Amino acid sequence: MTEEKKRKYKFDTLCLHAGHNVFETNSIVPPIYQSVAYPYESAEYAAKLYNYEIEGFTYGRMDNPTNDIFEKRLAALELTEKALLTSSGMSAEFMACVRLLEKGDEFITSGHTYGGTNQLFNSTFPKFGFVPKGVSNPEIIENWNELITDKTKFLFVETPSNPNLFIGDIEALSKLAKEKEVPLIVDNTIATPALQQPVKMGADIIVHSGTKYLSGNSTCISGVVAGSKEYIDDVKANEYRNIGPSISPFNSWLLLLGVETLSLRMRKHGENAQAVAEFLESHSKVVSVNYPGLKSHPQFELAKKQMKGSSALLSFVTKGELEDAKEVIDAFDLIIHAGHLGTSVSLATHPAFSTHQQLSQEEREAIGIPDTMIRLSIGLEDIDDLIEDIDQALKKIK
User: Fold this and answer.
1) Cβ-based neighbours of 317, under 8 Å, separated by 6 or more
2) Residues 103, 129 contacting (CB under 8 angstroms)
3) Tens-digit pLDDT profile for residues 99-149
4) Are residues 244 and 367 located together in one domain of the fold?
5) Are both 273 and 384 inside the same structural domain?
6) Which residues contact 365 (CB under 8 A, 6 or more apart)?
7) Domains: count for the chain
8) How far from chain centre, in Å, is Cα 223?
9) Do 282 and 347 share a structural domain?
10) CA-to-CA distance for 367 and 351, rounded, in angstroms?
11) Model-level pTM?
12) Domain region containing 233
């Protein structure tokens, strides 16, 4: 079955078949190619490989057959021409952005991003001479437009965002980006292509922390960049080749196993998260809940329009003070306290003192992360058990 034929199949079929020719590998399960180098059939063949005139495998730091299977699969799921695996989600973001920037260049990003992304953009990138501009109230497209100059090289939005679940208007941002002749980069980690395909709405480049839902079971650190063939080849031939943020073949293999059940998992994650969000919204010890599936969410209608579900991440603000939020987290029995999300078990964390601890209290509050916010990554457990655990923990608040 050729890749062209596979692209005609629907999403769930592609999760299982895209990128892998069972007759080429003589295996129904993609094999792990645990090798750092590959034989070249001739000097001319090697020269063409290294000059990117033909497809093939040069050296383990740049490419690998197992990695290639997943890259083709993810590209099919995200509706892009190509994809490139990296060693982590942060390395994927770095690779996606740095290829587009030169010293003195600017880029514009939503004010609602993961803490690691915030640090990359506002602490690391300025050391290279790159100039980040954060958008306050990024739901207002004119706020983005006002920051664009002739030095702007791309727009970046994480939607849904971690941890306050902001929903960016991908279609409107894509329209603005095209008017200004710059690419739009979308971090699609929380939704995954099972719930949202940004390319359909005009996005140019997609990034993922594959560590999260693509893997689905906390077994492998990984990242992915997806986009046009020209762009991915350019990233691969330059920064990727020079810096070497390559992923191990074994981790690629784990990703391939994980993505086979992506749609099934995301549906169950969403069902559980919706039930938890509704329970929390009605709870007497909760001030507010951030979840795109609730009508109270400020971008509820937009989320319904551009997503097929609301995913598994939510956050809520407890009544009381900082110590009350800490006591709730410590009281969870079934839900695990860990700095992670997107896995099959339910997890809780305290953003103000974990993912966003590097920001001051004023900076956190400005982007909607109070000290009493708790983030939940809802897993695949029985929903009654989850709600019972959350309820008993909240009862610790006096």
Assistant:
1) 286, 287, 288, 289, 370, 372, 373, 374
2) yes
3) 999 999 999 999 999 989 999 999 999 999 999 999 999 999 999 999 999
4) no
5) yes
6) none
7) 3
8) 8
9) yes
10) 12
11) 0.95
12) 1-99+183-260
